[in-house]
Amino acid sequence: MLEMTERKMDVDTIRAALKTHVFGARIEYRVSVTSTNDIAKQLAETGAPEGTVVCAEEQTAGRGRMQRSWTAPAYSSILTSIILRPSLQPEQMGRLGMAFGLGLADAVQQETGLNALLKWPNDLVINGKKCAGMLAEADLVGRRIDYVVVGIGLNVNWNAASLQGAPTAPTSIADELGHPFPREALLASFLNHSEQYYTRVGKGQSLRDEWSQRCETLGHEIRAVTPWGEETGKAEDVNEVGSLLLRRADGSLVELAAADVSLHTG
Ligand code: BTN
């Protein structure tokens, strides 16, 4: 059984490890919130600048994709949201998911040595189990993005494998390493790596190759549950905005912007 302690995140330690220009220049630390995405949205509405980071020890109404909830014991994990004000068209938003997925994977791999992969659309998986998820929420004014909040939940110091009812088998950094790991180092590294990828997105550079190389989904027969129904086929590629290109059995190609994906065995 892993020995876990209830220790607050040390924001000064996070700040000291930052190599960023924008991300984390303002860090809003809270003990308990409904959802860090909610707090980040409120701050964005009142003019908080790009790069503002909200992090909390506990969420009482944490949200996942597809109307699911996101659960993590207090003081155990990274529950964080970043405010962005990108100069992108709404249909390019998927590029942000690619930037933050890559940033998270690089951070986890570099800090822990674990083999961190991405599962389309943007789950972080270690040894085939989900260790983190991402929920991006945008506010549009007409066709212009006013702000985007990117929320990340990374399971760190709790026995996530014990969680019942998750669509993908869960895990945590501690589950995989066999011992707890300092959350500050992970959060700072995530911000450092993500800012670099985000800067590249701002310059119009492609992240497609790097994202594809990190992705464990491509090349596999999968079942994708979309908001509009189910699709099965071979996950062939991702495009520049992170949509999945799925080859159906009849040879046709379908582009999926969002779905839940599982390996298709029969
Ligand atoms: C998913 O995989 O379904 C996405 C999970 C995203 C969870 C994070 S935790 C921090 C932020 N606040 C939320 O309410 N959700 C995101």
Q: How would you describe this protein?
A:
- The chain has 266 residues and is of the alpha+beta class.
- Helices cover 26% and strands 30% of the residues.
- The chain contains six helices and twelve strands.
- It has helices at residues 11-17, 36-45, 94-112, 173-177, 183-202, 208-214; strands at 27-33, 53-59, 78-84, 116-119, 123-126, 129-141, 144-154, 221-226, 229-238, 244-247, 253-256, 260-263.
- The strands form two sheets. Strands 1-2-3-7-6-5-4 form a seven-stranded mixed sheet, with helices on both faces.
- Helix 1 (11-17) crosses helix 5 (183-202) and helix 3 (94-112) runs antiparallel to helix 5 (183-202).
- It is globular, with a radius of gyration of 18 Å.
- The relative contact order is 0.16.
- The model has no long low-confidence stretch (mean pLDDT 94).
- The structure holds biotin.
- The site of biotin has 20 residues, from helix 2, strand 3, strand 6 and strand 7.
Summarize this structure briefly:
Helix content is 26%, strand content 30%.
Quaternary: single chain
Element order: H for helix, E for strand: HEHEEHEEEEHHHEEEEE
In order across it, which strands form the biggest sheet?
A: 1-2-3-7-6-5-4
What would the average pLDDT be, to the nearest integer? 94
Distance between the termini: 36 Å
Taking all Cα atoms into account, the compactness measure Rg is: 18 Å
Structural class: alpha+beta
Estimated share of beta-strand residues: 25-35%
Q: Let me know the number of strands.
A: 12
Ligands in the structure? biotin
